[in-house]
Amino acid sequence: MSSDSESVQAEVDHFMKGLIRRNPGEPEFHQAVRDVVESLMPVVLDNERYRQEEILERMTEPDRVVIFRVTWEDDQGRFRANRASRVQFNNAIGPYKGGLRFHPSVTLSVLKFLGFEQVFKNSLTGLPMGGAKGGANFNPKGKSDHEVMRFCHSLMIELHRHIGEDTDVPAGDIGVGAREIGYMFGQYKRLENRVTGMLTGKGLAFGGSHVRTEATGYGCVYFARHMLGEQGESLEDKRVAISGSGNVALYAAQKLIEYGAKVVTLSDSSGFIHAPDGLTPEQWDFVREVKEKRRGRVSELADKFKEIEYHDGQRPWRVPCDIAMPCATQNEIEKEDAEALVKNGVRAVCEGANMPTNTEGVQVFQKAGILFAPGKAANAGGVAVSGLEQSQNSLRLSWSAEEVDEKLQGIMKRIHAQCVEHGRKGDRIDYVNGANVGGFIRVAEAMCAYGAV
Ligand code: GLU
To answer: Looking at the structure, do residues 170 and 126 belong to the same domain, yes or no?
Structure first.
């Protein structure tokens, strides 16, 4: 290490010590901040104004956190209670924007990490969106439609006070899809007597956008295509290991198949399926039906098609592949998984989920010189189309699927270009640095313009 990089590292360590002291017991939040601060510290140390105005300290402190109880009644008539929160992280460049997650693993730490990442991601899209995240430790798995409805209605009785089309615009995330958005939207409309674009991911019948369901997965593939294209390569015939089987994984798989890549894995919380020759369009249709219509398991693919194997209780990272697309959840690629992927010849990793690779995993990829696209750049297509949904709602217009997809492609291309511009290191591109610095500048400039707010 040169003395210069040593002093940057010392500043990072000093900063992180303070952050950890102020936010005890929040490991995911610490992890997300460290990743960003390591990229940004050289930029901040180089800029008198950013230093003077404590830009990093301010950007790592949420504007506001609302925590509330959600009481609801289950089908047996028992009263149940969950904790819900909305972390409104930063609205320097637009109204707060970010999903709601319903999952038993939801904690304040998880929502703060997600809200913090969202600030950078949303800035990278070039659209006027601040960053937020919310959710509850409610597990929709095994709940009836009516139970989910009662939970969503109850949650909105509190949340409606804090959101609005010019204030904060939630959307879906893990455990929150079209069904949940419909219930929440209906309750907001009733409470406020206003029909407006204060949620995105809505059904097409009530203000939703074409391509929103597909956007995160498609966007991730568009990003991967640019990343490979930069190296003179294409997606054709590449074996892609995907984790997850929600909307991100499914629509990434669909677009990859369209581009001639081989989707060799998909997974859920029970295990993964391995299709050594790649999923066929027919198999993809089947798995979409299983997941979207019946809320079933990926193992059903192996029951139906004999060339597909099912591996119970395992993650897909030991399977040989050219590209890994983790599309399930945070910290699903740990050090040993990353080492196995490198050993098996992976050439690119493109994150469809938020922070799916842990810190050691990222180090393994970077040391091995693997192309590594962090979620805040690669999965920004979802929130980008949410931004386009907001535009359509304001205009009281609906664009065609082709128009939205074209705009999405343009946005992913520009995000990639920003990563290249800010991440170039000799003949290599550090996409982590590129995304962090690219996302930071617009937010920092806006905050400086506002003075001490
Ligand atoms: N939850 C998604 C994300 O992580 C989408 C957020 C949104 O559409 O507001 O970016």
So the answer is: yes
Ligand 1 centroid to residue 79 C-alpha, Å: 30
CA–CA separation, 162 and 215 (whole Å): 26
Amino acid 5: pLDDT: 86
Q: Say if 131 falls within a structural domain.
A: yes
Average pLDDT over residues 91-120: 98
Q: Per-residue confidence at 234, pLDDT binned at 50, 70, 90? A: very high
Statement to judge: residues 313 and 177 lie in one domain:
no
CATH number assigned to the domain comprising residue 250: 3.40.50.720
Judge if 238 and 112 occupy the same domain.
Answer: no
Going from the Cα of 9 to the center of ligand 1, the distance in angstroms, rounded, reads 32
Q: Which of 325, 349, 378 is the last residue of a domain?
A: 378
Look at residues 12, 29, 59 and tell me which one is the last residue of a structural domain.
59
Summary mean pLDDT of the chain:
97
Is 103 a domain residue? yes
Distance 47 CA to ligand 1 centre (A): 31
pTM: 0.97
Distance of CA 312 to the CA centre of its chain: 26
Q: Is residue 29 part of a domain?
A: yes
Same domain, 68 and 53: no
Atom of ligand 1 nearest to the CA of 97: 9
Query: What is the C-alpha separation between 14 and 5, in angstroms, rounded?
Result: 14
State the catalytic residues. 133
Is there a single domain that holds both residue 141 and residue 245?
no
Query: CB count, 10 Å around CB of 449?
Result: 9
Query: Using 50, 70 and 90 to split pLDDT, how confident is the model at 2?
Result: low
The Cα–Cα gap between 426 and 318 comes to: 32
Q: What is the 95 CA–ligand 1 centroid distance (Å)?
A: 14
Q: What is the pLDDT of residue 226?
A: 98
Instruction: Report if residue 414 sits inside a domain.
Output: no
Mean pLDDT of 60-69: 98
CB 257 within 8 A of CB 263: yes
129 CA closest ligand 1 atom index: 9
So what's the pLDDT on residue 349? 98
Domain extent, residue 188, equals: 64-196
pLDDT of 3 over the 70 cut = no
Please indicate, yes or no, whether residues 86 and 182 belong to a single structural domain of this protein.
yes
Mean pLDDT of 15-24: 98
**The one-letter amino acid at 172:** G
- Which residue CA neighbors atom 8 of ligand 1 most closely? 383
47 has a pLDDT exceeding 90: yes
Q: For ligand 1, which residues put their CB under 6 angstroms from it? A: 97-99, 171, 173, 200, 354, 382-383, 386
CA 291 remoteness from chain centre:
20
The partner residues of 73 in beta bridges, in order of sequence, read 79
Domain count, the chain: 3
d(CA 235, CA 365): 20
From the CA of 386, give the closest atom in ligand 1.
8
